[in-house]
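Run log // design_07
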C-alpha cells in the first residue's frame, strides 16, 4: 500500500466542479467572480460556493478558493470584506499570489490556510523558506522543473512544514508563470490579473524555420510518471483547466483517478492513456519533468489534436476508414458528454434546507429543534422564557435573529413557532447566543468569528524627496560608467552563473560601488551559486527579483530592495516585505497606471523605486524560443545552450506586431517588446514619492535606438530629475521609438 496522493482538479464553473467531484477528485480549486487568475472561466458566486462546499465535503472532497492575482490598492476594502465572509465558511484553503494578501491572511485571518500560487514561480529552496515564513502551508512548484529538482524542493518543503503540489496535466505555459507580461503590454490583459489572452499561442507570420505557431507548446501529461512523483514525495497532483468544460474535467480526472488507484492499491500503472486523447489536447509531453527540454515539446497548431492523434495511431489505408473512425470518435464524445451531463444534473449544489421548530412555556428554557436532511439537534436557552420584556417572540423577530444561518451551507426552509405557549419574551442577547450555538453545530463544531477589523494604514509623513538616478547595466564593459557618473550603478547578474561565480566575485571586488541585481529565476546549482556570491561579496545593498535571495539577504542582515518583477501593487505588500523580511525598499510594478500608483502608501523608513526606461521583458522561458523561429542544429537543450548561446531573432503576428527574441550568454531565453518603455511623465505626475528612478542600459537590441552614448543618456536623465524643462523633449527626440502604454492603461 502506497501513501495517498491528492488528486486536485480544476473547477471553472458549477458543472465542471460537479464533474470533478463525481470523477473522484480529492480536492477542487475554483474561483469566485473576482480576485482570481482565470477571469475567462465562468467562475462561481459566493452563494454558489456554500452549496459547493456542502456537496464536496459530503463526497470527501476539499475545496480551495483561488484568489491568485495581484491586488491594487482600491480593492483592499472589498478583499477584506470577502475574507471576513470566508472565515465563516468551510473553505479548505485559499490560493494566493499577492504579498499583501499573504500579510492580511497571516496576521488577521489566520484560520484560512494559505496555498502559494503557481504565479509565484517557486523553483528554489530559499523561496520555499520565504513562503513558509509568510505561513504558506502548501506551494505549487514551477512547471519547468525536472523530477530531481522537484524531489529536492519537496524535501525542503516538508522540513519547513509545507506541502508541495505539481501540475501533471493540461496546458504548459511557454513562460515562467507570474513574470509573463506579453498579454499585459499588448492589450492591457494582465496575466497577473487573470486576464491572459494567450498571445503566445497566436498565429505568426511564417518563420524562417517554416512555423506559424512558434511559441506554442504541447500539453503537459505526467500520466506515466506517477511512480517518480510518488517517490519524490509530492503531496498533490494538480490538473490544469479552469476554462475547460465539464466533459473534459470528468474524463481527465476519472482517467487519473483510475491510474492513482491502480498504483496505490496494486503497485501497477495503467499503460493506456487513450481516453486523455479523446478530449481537448495539443498532444502531450512530459519533457520538463524528464529534464528533456527539446524541440519535440512544440506543436505548430494550437487546436484540438484528438482527430490528428487518431490518424497517427491507425495509419488508415483509405479516406473512408479515416472518416468512419473520426465519426465514431465524435459520436463517442457526444455520448460521454450526455452521460456526464446526466450525472451532474442529478447532483444538486443547492444549500441544504433546515426546519427549525421552536417551543417553550413561561419559566422554562426556549427549545430550538433544528432538522437538516441528514440529522437533527436541540439547542436550549440558558435563560428561561418570561411573560414580559422588550419584544414578544414571533416569526418576524426570531427569523431576523437567525437570518445569518442563510449565509452558510444551509438555509431556513421552514420556521415553526406554533408550539410557543402564549406571549413570551427572551432577551435579544440570548437569541443571538442561540444563533451562535446553532451555527457552531452546523459548522462542524467551529466557532463563528465576528468580522475582523483591519486597522487602517497610517499615511506616511510628507517628505520632500529629491529622487536620484540609478543605472542598471549587464555587461562588464559598461562598468567604466561608474567613473563617469555619480549615479548609482547596479549590475544585472544572469540566471545561470554557477560556472562564473568566481568571475563575478572578482568583478564586484574590484568595483566596490557596483550593486548586485538578482534575476527572477535561479534554479538548483545556480541558486546555490547566487547564495555563495551573496556570502562572499560584501554588498552594501542588493536588488532581487527572486524571493529566495530576499530570504537569504534578510537572514544575513543585507539591506535588500524588492525588484520590479516581484509585482508589488499595494501598500500591504510593502508592509509584508518590511515586517517579515526587513526589506529596505521596493520597486512598484510597471503594470500600474498613475492613479493606481498614487494610492499606495509606503511604510515608515522605507524607500520606493520605479523604472522609467528599460527594454520591456515580455516573458522568460526555460525552453529554447529559437527552435521554431530560426532553427537550431541541436534538437535537445543542454547546459552549454544556456551558458554559451547568444542569438537573436524576431517574430511578427498577423496584426503586424513584432517581438524580439534574444538569448544572451548565461541567461534564459526571453521575448522583448519591440519598443522600450520610456516614462518621463511619472517624474512630475507623482513628485516626492520615489527615492530613485532607474534606467536600464543593458545591451538588448530592440527597435528603440538611442542617438547618443550611454554616458550622454545618463546626463540627460539626470537633467530630467533636476527639473530641466527641455530634458523631457530632448529625451523623446534622442530615444525613439518608445512606449508608455502600461502607465496609461494600468491593470
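design_07 sequence
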Amino acid at each position: 500500500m502506497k501513501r495517498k496522493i491528492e488528486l486536485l482538479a480544476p473547477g471553472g464553473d458549477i458543472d465542471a466542479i460537479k464533474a470533478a467531484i463525481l470523477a473522484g477528485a480529492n480536492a477542487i480549486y475554483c474561483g469566485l467572480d473576482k480576485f482570481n487568475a482565470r477571469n475567462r472561466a465562468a467562475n462561481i458566486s459566493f452563494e454558489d460556493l456554500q452549496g459547493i462546499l456542502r456537496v464536496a465535503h459530503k463526497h470527501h472532497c476539499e475545496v480551495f478558493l483561488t484568489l491568485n492575482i495581484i491586488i491594487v490598492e482600491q480593492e483592499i476594502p472589498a478583499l477584506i470584506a470577502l475574507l471576513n465572509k470566508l472565515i465563516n465558511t468551510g473553505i479548505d484553503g485559499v490560493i494566493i499570489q499577492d504579498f499583501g494578501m499573504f500579510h492580511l491572511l497571516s496576521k488577521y485571518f489566520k484560520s484560512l490556510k494559505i496555498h502559494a500560487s503557481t504565479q509565484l514561480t517557486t523553483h528554489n529552496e530559499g523561496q520555499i523558506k520565504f513562503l513558509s515564513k509568510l505561513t504558506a502551508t502548501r506551494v505549487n512548484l514551477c512547471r519547468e522543473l525536472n523530477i530531481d529538482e522537484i524531489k529536492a524542493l519537496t524535501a525542503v518543503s516538508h522540513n519547513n512544514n509545507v506541502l508541495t503540489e505539481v501540475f501533471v496535466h493540461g496546458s504548459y505555459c511557454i513562460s515562467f508563470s507570474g513574470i509573463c507580461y506579453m498579454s499585459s503590454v499588448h492589450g492591457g490583459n494582465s496575466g497577473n490579473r487573470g486576464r491572459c489572452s494567450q498571445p503566445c499561442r497566436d498565429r505568426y507570420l511564417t518563420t524562417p524555420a517554416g512555423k506559424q505557431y512558434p511559441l506554442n507548446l504541447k500539453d503537459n501529461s505526467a500520466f506515466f510518471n506517477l511512480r517518480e512523483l510518488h517517490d519524490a514525495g509530492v503531496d498533490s497532483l494538480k490538473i490544469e483547466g479552469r476554462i475547460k468544460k465539464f466533459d473534459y474535467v470528468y474524463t481527465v480526472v476519472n482517467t487519473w483517478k483510475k491510474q492513482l488507484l491502480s498504483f496505490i492499491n496494486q503497485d501497477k500503472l495503467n499503460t493506456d492513456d487513450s481516453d486523455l486523447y479523446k478530449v481537448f489536447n495539443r498532444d502531450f509531453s512530459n519533457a520538463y519533468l524528464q529534464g528533456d527540454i527539446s524541440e519535440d515539446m512544440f506543436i505548430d497548431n494550437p487546436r484540438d489534436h484528438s482527430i490528428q492523434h487518431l490518424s497517427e495511431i491507425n495509419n488508415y489505408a483509405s479516406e473512408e476508414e479515416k472518416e468512419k473512425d473520426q465519426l465514431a470518435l465524435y459520436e463517442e464524445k457526444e455520448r460521454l458528454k450526455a452521460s456526464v451531463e446526466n450525472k451532474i444534473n442529478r447532483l444538486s449544489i443547492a444549500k441544504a434546507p433546515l426546519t427549525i421548530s421552536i417551543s417553550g412555556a413561561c419559566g422554562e428554557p426556549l427549545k430550538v429543534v433544528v432538522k437538516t436532511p441528514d440529522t437533527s439537534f436541540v439547542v436550549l436557552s440558558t435563560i428561561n422564557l418570561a411573560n414580559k420584556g422588550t419584544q414578544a417572540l414571533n416569526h418576524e423577530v426570531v427569523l431576523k435573529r437567525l437570518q445569518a444561518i442563510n449565509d452558510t451551507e444551509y438555509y431556513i426552509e421552514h420556521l415553526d413557532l406554533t408550539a410557543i405557549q402564549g406571549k413570551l419574551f427572551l432577551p435579544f442577547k440570548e437569541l443571538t447566543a442561540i444563533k451562535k450555538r446553532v451555527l457552531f453545530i452546523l459548522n462542524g463544531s467551529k466557532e463563528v468569528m465576528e468580522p475582523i477589523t483591519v486597522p487602517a494604514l497610517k499615511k506616511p509623513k510628507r517628505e520632500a524627496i529629491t529622487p536620484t538616478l540609478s543605472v542598471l547595466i549587464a555587461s562588464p564593459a559598461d562598468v567604466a560608467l561608474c567613473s563617469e557618473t555619480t549615479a548609482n550603478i547596479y549590475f544585472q547578474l544572469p540566471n545561470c552563473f554557477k560556472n562564473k561565480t568566481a568571475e563575478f566575485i572578482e568583478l564586484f571586488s574590484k568595483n566596490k560601488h557596483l550593486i548586485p541585481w538578482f534575476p527572477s529565476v535561479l534554479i538548483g546549482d545556480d541558486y546555490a551559486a547566487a547564495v555563495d556570491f551573496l556570502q562572499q561579496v560584501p554588498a552594501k545593498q542588493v536588488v532581487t527579483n527572486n524571493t529566495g535571495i530576499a530570504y537569504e539577504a534578510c537572514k544575513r542582515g543585507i539591506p535588500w530592495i524588492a525588484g520590479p518583477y516581484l509585482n508589488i501593487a499595494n501598500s500591504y505588500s510593502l508592509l509584508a516585505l518590511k515586517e517579515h523580511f526587513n526589506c529596505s525598499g521596493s520597486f512598484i510594478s510597471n503594470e500600474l497606471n498613475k492613479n493606481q500608483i498614487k494610492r499606495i502608501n509606503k511604510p515608515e523608513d522605507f524607500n520606493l523605486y520605479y523604472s522609467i526606461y528599460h527594454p520591456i521583458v515580455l516573458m522568460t522561458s526555460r525552453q529554447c524560443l529559437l527552435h521554431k523561429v530560426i532553427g537550431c542544429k541541436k534538437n535537445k537543450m543542454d547546459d552549454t545552450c544556456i551558458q554559451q548561446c547568444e542569438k537573436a531573432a524576431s517574430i511578427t503576428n498577423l496584426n503586424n506586431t513584432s517581438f524580439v527574441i534574444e538569448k544572451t550568454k548565461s541567461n534564459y531565453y526571453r521575448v522583448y517588446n519591440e519598443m522600450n518603455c520610456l516614462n518621463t511623465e511619472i517624474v512630475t505626475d507623482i513628485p516626492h514619492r520615489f527615492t530613485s528612478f532607474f534606467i536600464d542600459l543593458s545591451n538588448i537590441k530592440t527597435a528603440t535606438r538611442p542617438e547618443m552614448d550611454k554616458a550622454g543618456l545618463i546626463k540627460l536623465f539626470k537633467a530630467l530629475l533636476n527639473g530641466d524643462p527641455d530634458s523631457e523633449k530632448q529625451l523623446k527626440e534622442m530615444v525613439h521609438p518608445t512606449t508608455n502604454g502600461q502607465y496609461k492603461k494600468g491593470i
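The two ends are 49 Å apart (CA to CA).
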